[in-house]
Amino acid sequence: MFVFKNAWKSVIRNKGRNILIAIIVAIIAAAATIGLSIRQAANSARETGLENTSVTGQISVDRSKLISASNTSGSSTTDARPDFSAIREALSDKELKLSDYQKYAKLSSVASSYYTETSSLAKTDSFQAVSTTSSDNSSSSSESSNADAQQGPGGGMGGGMGATTISGDFQLVGFSSDQAVKNASNGSFTMTSGEVFGYDATDDNEVIISKSLADFNNLKVGSTITAANPSDSSKTYTLKVVGIYKNSTETSGSTGGPGNSSTASDPANAIYTSVATLKALGLDASSTLTTTDSSGTSSTSAAAQISYTYVFSNKSDYTSFKTQATKAGLSSDYAVSSSDVEEYESSLVPLNNLSQFALTLLLIVLGVGAVVLIVLSLFNVRERKYEVGVLTAMGVKKTKVAAQFAIELLIVTMIGLGIGAIAGAATSLPVSNQLLASQVAQQESENSSQQAQFGRGMQGGAGPNGSGSSSNSGSNAGGNSGSTTQAPPSQGNGGPGRIGTRAVSYVSSINSTVSLSMVGQLVLIGLGLTLLSALVGVIFVMRYEPLQILADRS
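The structure corresponding to this sequence follows.
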């Protein structure tokens, strides 16, 4: 009890020095509170941001792994060129069948699934494709030497993730359900007349076409159209128009680039139907088309490409699906990915940068603060050297004297810690959001600079619209309603054969409130600083000899 009473009297007696220490500790505590709140918000965003939002995922061939394995194990030529034959062999016959996709859709982690099958059709004299060119240079069935929609092994990934070269004049897309229609790779659309087709095999070749295509061919609901097989012009298909739609985002002409004159890549020439109709026409993924090139070589390819998407209730189910799929027999040659997860993680880039900055600043503040406190503690002990000599000469043990100095410092530190924690809690939200806004502005500036440099965003695919989570979907990193900032659009989600755009919505506000765990961390920080700085005082006290101190004083 003597130690505590004497320590408190010393705190009251040395007000100036202790007020200075309390101010320094308060500054450290305020900075620590803000830094810890930012890191807590960032961790919460990473761990729980997608826990209450549906997530979509796809299975695709891990081409990078297969190519790397082929280059490693394959025999290299004398001039060190890649073994293209080995690479092609490794990538061949890797496309999953519909039954394979459906097997994994039965796993417990999957909430639902949908898919599309993309084929193509060629024009006829009575049904022409929308084209912005003055000359008729589209790749019709009689002129095309390419196969139907060609794609690398693995097919699509539920949202245009793979590059697709489309021959023919029209893109014929079969949907498995309304959910698949809602997430059409060409983007959302609205019906201007009629209604969307059914999904039963009894539906009589029902299709819906774009308003541009309908106007171009003077068609209306109830009209019939005749299109040809892209590899055999003598084979035609009769389709019934049951609806006319208008794309939410209109584009004109093919975006295939130089040398790609196919009008099938134009969204206006997309014909939508059900997978049942596609199967009835013999243009589904289980059917094949045979084409012959200019040299007379025949090749067989699938009549359609499958794009299968799995829907998960949250990110945890998506993570579980990876493990379950592997146990169910999914080869290591395939990878499970989610554009929703990737996009959400992209939206956290400014917040992650801010979290790293907060950690660096926190370490610097703690380091500098610890040094300052150690120096002040050292001066405190040296100034009170005579007091130490008197107490020890009176019979007080050195350990008690050292404990008194430690308790004095602890009292002052806890007072400063409390003041700093209150100040930090009051300012953490506006300061954190202001710092985050600066990070977002910096990230957007980088994107804008790249946009100006390239004249476009970074190329790359994205997942389906609408069904999974948007990058942030209007919720902030702390779990309460907040805001997002939309960056310049990046390339992706354009559907097969074309380039689309999707903007990344960066997290622009966080709920950086002080939690009990953070209070515990602050207390540990205070105790750590106290012990570290008090240790210096303890060392000096234990080294002092009371008689020598009193003799020197005399």
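Confidence is low (pLDDT under 50) at residues 135-166, 253-260, 458-502.
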